[in-house]
Protein: Major facilitator superfamily (MFS) profile domain-containing protein
Organism: Sus scrofa
Amino acid sequence: MKYVEEEFLEIKQTWVLLVCIGATSGLGRLVSGRVSDSIPGLKKIYLQVISFLLLGLMSMMIPLCRGFGGLIVVCLFLGLCDGFFITIMAPIAFELVGPMQASQAIGYLLGMMALPMIAGPPIAGLLRNCFGDYHVAFYFAGVPPIIGAVILLFVPLMHQRMFKKEPLKRLEQQSSCFHSSLPTSTKSSEVLQDLLCCLWHG
């Protein structure tokens, strides 16, 4: 709100932006639930990629808005992206780690999200004091979501490779167990042969 007060001096109804973000965030949560149900498996992660990319781009576009109407449009998209990535987070965790460890994975995600949310406002204040406005802070705020989207693109490929390696590891373990049991079986057969020979000749 401080940014709006500095950039748009004639605007007094700054609360409209918060209402826009909240309304489209709720709408995004409803729509993303329906959409993610229709997407099979780990392909849901691409919705997360799109929402992260848009979130980063919209953050960078805030300083470029010269009118309050444009800022409202950007905030509408910000809320929509927020609703999407919050809702899709849980189904993706279920697909990646399974239902037994999904709650723990979601807890780690929320804990990791808390760190930049706590550190973000003080850093934005420092950047404002250094550069005289919030433009640089908004540009920097758009970088982490874009980097996260690029990293998420490789997650399905890594997940497929891990699943392909697991059957091979199981086969190797089974074969090693089989080979380790061979010496004991051969020794026992030799002992039986010696006993039979002794009984036959005895």
